[in-house]
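The authors assume throughout that readers already know how a fold can be written as discrete tokens. Each protein is reduced to its one-letter sequence and a matching series of backbone shape codes. I therefore recommend that a typical entry be quoted early in the introduction. For illustration, here is how one protein appears when written out as sequence plus structure tokens:
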Amino acid sequence: MEDRQNEPAALEKPSPTANGLANILADFVDALIPGDDNWPSASKVGVQAVLVNRLADLDREDDIDRVVEFITAAGGFAGKSEVERSAIVAVLERRHPELFKLICQAVYFAYYESPAAAARIRSLGFSYRLRPHIGGYPMPRVDAIRDRPHHERGSYLRTEDVCRLDLSKLDWLLQEQRECGHDRD
């Protein structure tokens, strides 16, 4: 068993590598959803943590390293303009399209699942719930005139007016039924 008595200081303070990883991931999600005066950035609502967890849940932790290594090799995002950051992200998308698609889905879902983004959407006058599947959204009562299709295709037949279709003129169908042993005579 290893002797760890001489390492408590290292455990109390995160290593620069851990801080560097956190900063790269925060900058990366902010390149995807930068935020502004009205909307929080992705990193402010914690999207980078959700992204890492979702990739880990899919047993794709290596992809986290791949993204971090790619961004590091490109010089990172620190001190770069929005255009330069976008260029790095565009190259990542071209080189790893399936991974990038998965990342974007995770980032966008995480962002719009955040209470801060939901609050901003509600502030615009929209009904927006973090868990709409539980209670749904309020819907107006159905109005037969307002909600009736106006395209004039199709028709309506009352249930009591439904009758059996006469298939006797469809010779090919009758022959097929006889061959399959479905003759009703």
About this structure: The longest helix spans residues 16-32. The radius of gyration is 29 Å.
